[in-house]
Amino acid sequence: MEIDAVITWVDGNDPSHRQRMQAFGAASVFSRQDVAGDTRYASLGEIFWCVASLNRFAPFLRRIFLVTDGQDPHLEPFLEREFPEGYIPVEIVDHKVVFAGYENYLPVFNSIAIETMQWRIPGLSEHFIMLNDDFMLAAPVTPADFFTPEGWPVCYAERYSLPWARFTRAIKPRRDGRRKVTFKGVMLHAADMLGQKGWFLRLDHTPRPLLRSFYEQWFAAHPESLVRNIRHRFRDADQFSTEELQYLSLYRQGRCRIVSPAGCLFFLQPKHKFRYVERKMARLRRENCKFCCFNSLDLAAPDDRRTILSWISSRLDIAL
């Protein structure tokens, strides 16, 4: 089974990228952290340890595709230094390539829209793993961690009550008459599209094994849903999770295995709590998680950031 990895990446510190964003978004857009806050685009070199973790712990991958907007992190010197015996080939894919035929929706600064088009990468294998650049592998994995022997995806999620999720969404305060864009909200939209009853799959911050052919067939049959997701230059509460859509659809067909992320995932997002990062990292050192997500590290205090990066460097045996 050939398996590729797909990573979305942006260097929000690039002045030209920031200038383009400012040209297409009002000030009110950038004031909303759920839509286009600075932390969504900040780059602290996460792409280097994300790619390094794939080389260290998932050498079976055929290729790594890096989806970008006219940018290049220049990974080759880093990979040649840290993996002198060879590394997984990396191919940069521009937004113009995956949005071919839909260029009128570019430029786009919306991760949900970009993820909607990833399956259109030329040469992408049927089986691929989608990651954000703040994800990393923290232990050796095998293809069986991502796909069953039959080739069906392994979805890391928990069942979650649809009525309760809808209720909490309905009572959530709005800002300037707008619903907040939430991780759970985009999953709910996918469940609603399928007429799901009772429960949905609450996905977590793990790598997402996916089938390219599912999206090819779904969007051929439902082209309006593709446009619904890519027409927003910035994140919007009307969008849906394409991963949730795939997993729920395949699960109904008996073609998806559900696994709890408990015990295999470590997630850290800096918070203003006493010794929060210190306590979280102490837990990480005690556990043997396969997946890690260090979210919004730009918001961490300098000492906490150094602690996290030191752990990553040691875990992956690389210099950062």
Q: Report on the biggest sheet.
A: 5 strands, mixed
Count the strands?
Answer: 11
Helical coverage, percent range: 25-40%
Number of helices: 14
Distance between the termini: 32 Å
Average per-residue pLDDT, rounded, comes to: 89
Count of the domains: 1
Give the second-level CATH assignment, the architecture. Answer: Alpha-Beta Complex
Low-confidence region ranges: none
State the shape: globular
Strand and helix order: EHHHHEHEHHEEEHHEEHHHEEHEH
Would you give the CATH topology?
Spore Coat Polysaccharide Biosynthesis Protein SpsA, Chain A
* Strands side by side in the biggest sheet: 3-2-1-4-8
Description:
The protein is of the alpha/beta class. It has one domain: Spore Coat Polysaccharide Biosynthesis Protein SpsA, Chain A (Alpha-Beta Complex). It has helices at 15-24, 27-30, 33-36, 46-57, 76-82, 95-98, 111-117, 162-171, 183-193, 212-221, 223-230, 242-252, 276-286, 302-316, and strands at residues 3-8, 63-68, 90-94, 127-132, 135-137, 154-161, 199-203, 208-211, 257-259, 265-268, 291-294. The strands form three sheets. It has a five-stranded mixed beta sheet with strand order 3-2-1-4-8. Strands 5-11-10 form a three-stranded mixed beta sheet. Strands 7-6-9 form a three-stranded mixed beta sheet. Helix 13 (276-286) links the parallel strand 10 and strand 11.
